[in-house]
């Protein structure tokens, strides 16, 4: 079979005006970015929000192997299959970060015959949204350091600065640095560091804002440091919010592209789920809901991360109510969670499959605990054996949920018709969706409800610094915000080596940070990093572009 990039480059693209027309948008409703991409205008976004809302489908997954298990591919294939059945559907996704593109995973725009196009642009600079976020974040940093250098009227304590500069790249050497070396004209020397762009609070604000005015208000509320009297310093104190919002005037508009079968797709925002809240923008989701019958969205990594944050943060903030949830499982990931080594995942291993099934079982139970109907999509890989598939089908009968074999990677929409039919049936059922906790709960109560009900931890332990910061946040009056827990994607626990469905473990909270503009409390556990590093053999080593524009190695 052809590589993903070969399939993408050989796929016929419809003119963007035709893609827009499929979801009742006129040529005046989109702003073209070349011939293959567009942004949906503010007027069209506003109108879509007033329209009757379609069904919202969340695609999530079990805990993955390091390479991922095809959640985005399933999302895209499902949206195409729904269209093939005669419904209007939009695949609504996050934009890939350059970090994983050049790191472990390579490209992140789906795979096989279920991709969003043009994948080479989507995986790289796209329409420049991430660059705008990077610039906006770093403008605040520059104005903060400049204020201190120019006399420090606000009496900012440099040792309390919490906002880091960002870069959309995996670069471990930037985690801890010293800035302003040299003469005093270079500023006040201090310890600093970089985060990856997708971990920036600006990214979270973009994805949780309702409009440009809301974005401006949220940015103004960001806390970037404290004074020598321990009072918070806001972006509004630096008078930076206006310029930051100006930088984001185009980036706040959702991006319109298409799939390999010319189905419309909206891609906007891209926070990681292990270090941020892991969902595409509320603006994109609300726009899509007003333009089609079925909006197929996704939440990053396993359901213990992305789905939990989607259901406990994004949905309440965006006034969203999902109709159904698809949990993507692969035989590879189940065997991995059952103890099989990554290097052996292509080999049949029934015993590891049975052990790893506990991971899927727990995820299904968690989603059902939100009052939502579930279907399990088995994303088939070429190495899956018939015996493994039949074993998994038998195991899943005990779950009491539909289990559907998905072959959208190899067959496009044809390989997702059974899944699409199952989703349509689920959407006709009433559900009792309710977030896991009330925002009025204390910060520790919210953390512990997630840890015990979603991760199935026995208890939660806190560092002294974390407890002190919780007290500071509650004193500030921000204790009624949701919690966004930064945790490894490889395990229900905060230890990536504890695979499957671990029990009798503690979650250790080492750090707490208030993202006051985004509107949540960041809870850092384990060894999770907000600036990842590259692997020993980065995906970037295999990439090249020839003189005629032919790309290889992007996936």
What's a quick, concise take on this entry?
This protein has three domains: 4-127 and 257-427, Rossmann fold (3-Layer(aba) Sandwich); 129-247, Domain 2, N(10)-formyltetrahydrofolate synthetase, CATH 3.30.1510; 443-525, Formyltetrahydrofolate synthetase, domain 3 (Roll). The protein has 20 helices and 24 strands.
What does this structure look like?
This protein is of the alpha/beta class and 555 residues long. It folds into three domains: 4-127 and 257-427, Rossmann fold (3-Layer(aba) Sandwich), CATH 3.40.50; 129-247, Domain 2, N(10)-formyltetrahydrofolate synthetase (2-Layer Sandwich); 443-525, Formyltetrahydrofolate synthetase, domain 3 (Roll). It contains 20 helices and 24 strands. Strands 1, 2, 3, 4, 5, 6, 13, 14, 15, 16, 17 and 18 form a twelve-stranded mixed β-sheet that branches. A hairpin with a 5-residue loop joins strand 11 and strand 12. The mean pLDDT is 95.
- The share of residues in extended strands comes to 15-25%
* Integer average pLDDT: 95
Shape: globular
How much helical structure, as a percent, in the residues?
25-40%
- According to CATH, the homologous superfamily of the largest domain is P-loop containing nucleotide triphosphate hydrolases
Query: Helix tally?
Result: 20
CATH top level label of the largest domain: Alpha Beta
CATH architecture of the largest domain: 3-Layer(aba) Sandwich
CATH topology of the largest domain: Rossmann fold
The computed structural class is: alpha/beta
Q: Count of DSSP E strands?
A: 24
For the biggest sheet, the summary is: 12 strands, mixed
Low-confidence stretches: none
Q: Count structural domains.
A: 3
Q: Cα distance, first to last residue?
A: 13 Å
């Amino acid at each position: 079979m052809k590589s993903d990039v070969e399939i993408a480059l050989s796929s016929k693209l419809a003119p963007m005006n035709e893609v827009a027309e499929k979801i009742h948008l006129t040529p005046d409703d989109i702003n073209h970015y070349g011939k293959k991409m567009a942004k949906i205008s503010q007027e069209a976004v506003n109108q879509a929000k007033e329209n009757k809302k379609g069904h919202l489908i969340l695609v999530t997954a079990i805990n993955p192997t390091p390479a991922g298990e095809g959640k985005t591919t399933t999302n895209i294939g499902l949206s195409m299959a729904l269209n093939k059945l005669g419904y209007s559907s939009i695949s609504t996704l996050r934009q890939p970060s350059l970090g994983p593109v050049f790191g472990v995973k390579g490209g992140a725009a789906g795979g096989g015959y279920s991709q969003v196009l043009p994948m080479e642009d989507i995986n790289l600079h796209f329409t420049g949204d991430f660059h705008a976020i990077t610039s906006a974040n770093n403008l605040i940093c520059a104005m903060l350091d400049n204020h201190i250098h120019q006399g420090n009227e606000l009496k900012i304590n440099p040792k309390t600065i919490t906002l880091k500069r960002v870069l959309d790249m995996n670069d471990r050497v930037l985690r801890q640095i010293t800035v302003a070396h040299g003469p005093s004209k270079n500023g006040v020397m201090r310890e600093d560091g970089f985060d990856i762009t997708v971990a920036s609070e600006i990214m979270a604000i973009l994805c949780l804002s309702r409009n440009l005015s809301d974005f401006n208000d949220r940015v103004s509320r960001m806390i970037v440091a404290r004074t020598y009297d321990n009072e918070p310093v806001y972006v509004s104190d630096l008078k930076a919010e206006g310029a930051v919002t100006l930088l984001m005037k185009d980036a706040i508009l959702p991006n319109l592209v298409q799939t390999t079968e010319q189905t419309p797709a909206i891609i906007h925002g891209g926070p990681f789920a292990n270090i941020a809240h892991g969902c595409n923008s509320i603006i994109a989701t609300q726009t899509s809901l007003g333009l089609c019958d079925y909006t197929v969205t996704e939440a990053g990594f396993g359901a213990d991360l992305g789905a939990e944050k989607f259901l406990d943060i994004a949905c309440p903030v965006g006034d969203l109510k999902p109709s159904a949830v698809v949990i993507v499982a692969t035989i590879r990931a189940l065997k991995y969670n059952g103890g099989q080594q990554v290097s052996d995942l292509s080999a049949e291993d029934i015993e590891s499959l049975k052990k790893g099934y506990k991971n899927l079982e727990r995820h299904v139970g968690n989603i059902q605990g939100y009052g939502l109907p579930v279907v399990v999509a088995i994303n088939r890989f070429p190495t899956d054996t018939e015996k493994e598939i039949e074993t998994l089908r038998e195991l899943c009968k005990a779950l009491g949920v539909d289990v559907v074999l998905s072959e959208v990677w190899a067959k496009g929409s044809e390989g997702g018709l059974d899944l699409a039919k199952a989703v349509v049936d689920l959407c006709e059922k009433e559900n009792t969706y309710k977030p896991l906790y009330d925002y009025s709960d204390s910060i520790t109560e919210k953390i512990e409800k997630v840890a015990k009900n979603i991760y199935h931890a026995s208890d939660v332990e806190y560092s002294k610094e974390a407890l002190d910061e919780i007290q500071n946040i509650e004193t500030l009056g921000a204790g009624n915000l949701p919690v966004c827990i930064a945790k490894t994607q490889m395990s229900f626990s905060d230890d990536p080596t504890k695979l499957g469905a671990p029990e009798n473990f503690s979650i250790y909270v080492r750090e707490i940070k208030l993202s006051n503009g985004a509107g949540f409390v960041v809870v850092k556990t384990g060894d999770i990093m907000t600036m990842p590093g590259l692997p020993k053999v980065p995906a970037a080593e295999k990439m090249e572009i020839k003189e005629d524009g032919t790309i290889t190695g992007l996936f």
